[in-house]
Specification:
This protein is of the alpha+beta class. Helices cover 17% and strands 31% of the residues. The protein has helices at residues 148-155, 161-164, 262-287, 310-325; strands at 5-11, 21-25, 28-34, 40-44, 58-60, 65-67, 74-76, 81-83, 104-107, 110-115, 139-144, 176-185, 188-196, 218-221, 225-228, 234-244, 247-256. The structure holds FE2/S2 (inorganic) cluster and fe (ii) ion. The site of FE2/S2 (inorganic) cluster (FES) has 8 residues, from loops.
Length: 327
Amino acid sequence: MIFNQWYAILESSEVKKGKLLGVIRFGEKLLFWRTHEGEIACIKDRCAHRGAALSKGKLVSNSQEVQCPFHGLHFDRTGKCTIIPSRGEKAFIPSNFKVESYYIREAHNFIWIWWGIPQDRYPDIPWFDDVDDKFHYYTLKDPWKTHYSRCIENQLDVSHLWIVHHNTIGRGNKKVSDGPYVDFSDNLEKVWVTNRKENGNVSILPSEIEKPPHPSLVQFKFPNMWQNKFSDVARIIIAFAPVDEENTILYLRFIHKMTRIPILRGIISIVGRYFSKIIAHQDRRVVETQLPKITAYKMEDGDNLFPADYPIVIYRRIRDEMKKRKI
Ligand code: FES
Ligand SMILES: [Fe+2]
């Protein structure tokens, strides 16, 4: 993991008022709930007494606190224990009776967790400048059985389209990848896809290709947001929620503003999500087989890359640098 980053890890609608939600993210069992006022609380899903899952308990004190199902201890949204029933409600509570809590924000219909050390001032949520909240979509929540690094790299991979997606977005047999041209700044990696048919010429290297005049197709915003800008009025956005070392959940949105007519808008979103799912599952079938499941810039006994993998090299390099910096 890259520490001290905002990660989109759930969709807003998954955390409902009056309900406890236990999920695994970053290999940790986390508990979410929404307070009476609508704010989101997140603490570890592990009681400070003897380790029971708090998500099996219940909300109390007007949804300000959770009660453990085992011996009834109360914990507030900061993870502090407020009552130990077996000691009586007035009893002093030792400071070790505390569960770790996390800083949460809600934006763009995602729930974002600050994964790292608490800060005096938090940076902005990593989002795309050109994506406002006027786009319409229905989200596809799609579990993939592999580490998030493989899932992200697949979306930066320009040379698999002609084979994996031969009957969908990769039609046309454009096997040869010139470049691709890649730009990286402000935690945003931009990739221009310049594939063509075999014509007897070897591919142009990434170091030799000129920057194409049109905007980039694929963009990745560290640490876990991606978009495919195939049109000004329609695109695909994916948040890669890290579950553990062998599992990721993709929150995939086909977003569009093709029309304002509600019924038509809904139909387009449903059809867009349907086709996005077909394409994502063409990828998933192969990506889940990749070994090792976790990648790094320097992999022992790892992959052998070719020039079209340049966006993946950049992703790995930046990710490893950020991991080391612990910014
Ligand atoms: S394990 Fe939670 S109160 Fe005992
Ligand atoms: Fe793909």
